Amino acid sequence: MTPQEWTYLAVLLFSIPIGFLFKRGGYREKQLGGAAVGLLLTLVTCNIHTWHSLVTILGTWVILSLSPRSCHYLTLGWTFSYLLFFRTVTFFGLPAPTPFTNAMQLLLTLKMVSLANEVQELSQAKKQDVASFSKGPMVGLIPSVPGLGQILCYSYCYVGLLTGPFYRYRTYLDWLQQPDSRAIPSWRPLLARVRLAPVFGLLFLGVSRLFPLDYVQTEAFPARALPFRLFYMVPVFFVFRMRFYVAWLCAESACIAAAFGAYPTAARARPGGGPTLHCPSAEDGAPGEAPPAYDYETIKNIDPHGTDFCVRVRDGMRYWNMTVQWWLAQYIYKSAPFRSYVLRSAWTMLISAYWHGLHPGYYLSFLTIPLCLAAEGAMEAGLRGRRGAAPESDRSWGAWLHWFLKMRAYDYMCMGFVLLDLGPTLHYWRSIYFCVHGGALALLLLGRALGRPAPRPQGAPAEGLHRE
């Protein structure tokens, strides 16, 4: 493990026990104490570069104050423009930010855009006179436009500060306003969530030692046989997944310890978005009635089983970094300037690549996804009419083949994500003959060929004629 990884782990492990203390606190203790701890962590890990987050917050506050009815896209433009400056500060003679500053800036960008959307929705509801605060804080609008102090506390709250999960201002506000946090279970869901983290950690340490990423860029690697070069991307992606499984499971556990993001199960909360249905709280129930069951779906950021064993490429994205996926779907995909699913996905992946950074490897990887989605969709459409006559065993084998190809596609794309630079990424992909790009294109053409209607025999009546 690198010193940077040890620091992330220390922050996560520190956040879990301190969460139990904040769970016992009231509104002010959570708001001010959570922000104080988060600001301390920011100063320790980001040092002088903390000013980047402060400038981002102040700029967002100005936009919210001056133009609350149209602040969403203005804030999106402001924060994403600042990301460009943030990543090119060395051209202006300023010191390069630390990796921790970059992590915080990424999550802060999501928070500010989401906050602006919530403020705009509130302003539009007031204008149309349809705001209904009787729905309750779980699914209702935010009660008012937050001031600078409230935005600062939300932005620097220690929960998910460096590693996620992303959460909306409404979720944060609901945490502050929990009537009785002690009645919300933490220990049992925390243990259930974190129990596999040590296993993932040991797998990460063991496999990363056996298959180091640096070996791909040595002179000896291209001389190895093609099957070995093809195989090597499998453990690289495995190590990549294990690292994030540990990080995100611990980050979720920190939320659970503080009862952050806890909602009644009947509210049907979604990762990132929060509740989708109104659900009465424990205080609203009749005397003697059993308290509602709670879940932490709002802050769920990873589904390891779903990531590893889902069949389709599109489902693989849904189970990975789930709160950020919700943000991308809500604020980027839905407003994409295209109607086609593949083109909308390509637009979303382009924005996601820019959000991650300026390294060419991000763009090479993310923009390979739309090709895989197009090939997957074409094959599903082409085979849809032929599956009815196929035996159940054939359909099962087809699902396993689909899963295998999905995993190899993500193995392939992961190499660009971890190698980052243009040269090393293309060098590795060239060493395996750009097999996923070529295979996806071949499947796309095959799927379209299978989807074409069979030619009508010469002289046969047109469909629809001579009806009985």
Walk me through what this model shows:
The protein has 19 helices and two strands. The longest helix has 32 residues, at 226-257. Mean pLDDT is 90; it is low at 130-138 and 461-468. With 468 residues, it is mainly α.
List the helices and strands and how they pair.
Elements: H1 3-23, H2 27-46, H3 50-66, H4 71-87, H5 99-128, H6 148-156, H7 169-176, H8 187-194, H9 197-210, H10 226-257, E1 263-264, E2 294-295, H11 304-309, H12 313-318, H13 322-333, H14 341-356, H15 360-366, H16 369-384, H17 392-419, H18 422-431, H19 435-451
Antiparallel strand pairs: 1-2
Helix pairs in contact: 1-2, 1-10, 2-6, 3-4, 3-5, 3-6, 4-5, 8-10, 9-10, 10-17, 13-14, 14-15, 14-16, 15-17, 16-19, 17-18
Quick description:
With 468 residues, the chain is mainly alpha-helical. The protein has helices at residues 3-23, 27-46, 50-66, 71-87, 99-128, 148-156, 169-176, 187-194, 197-210, 226-257, 304-309, 313-318, 322-333, 341-356, 360-366, 369-384, 392-419, 422-431, 435-451, and strands at 263-264, 294-295. Mean pLDDT is 90; it is low at 130-138 and 461-468.
Key structural traits:
disordered C terminus; globular; 468 residues; mainly alpha
Q: In percent, how much strand structure appears in the residues?
A: under 5%
Mean pLDDT: 90
Shape: globular
**How much helix, percentage-wise, in residues?**
55-70%
Cα separation of the termini: 74 Å
Multimerization state? single chain
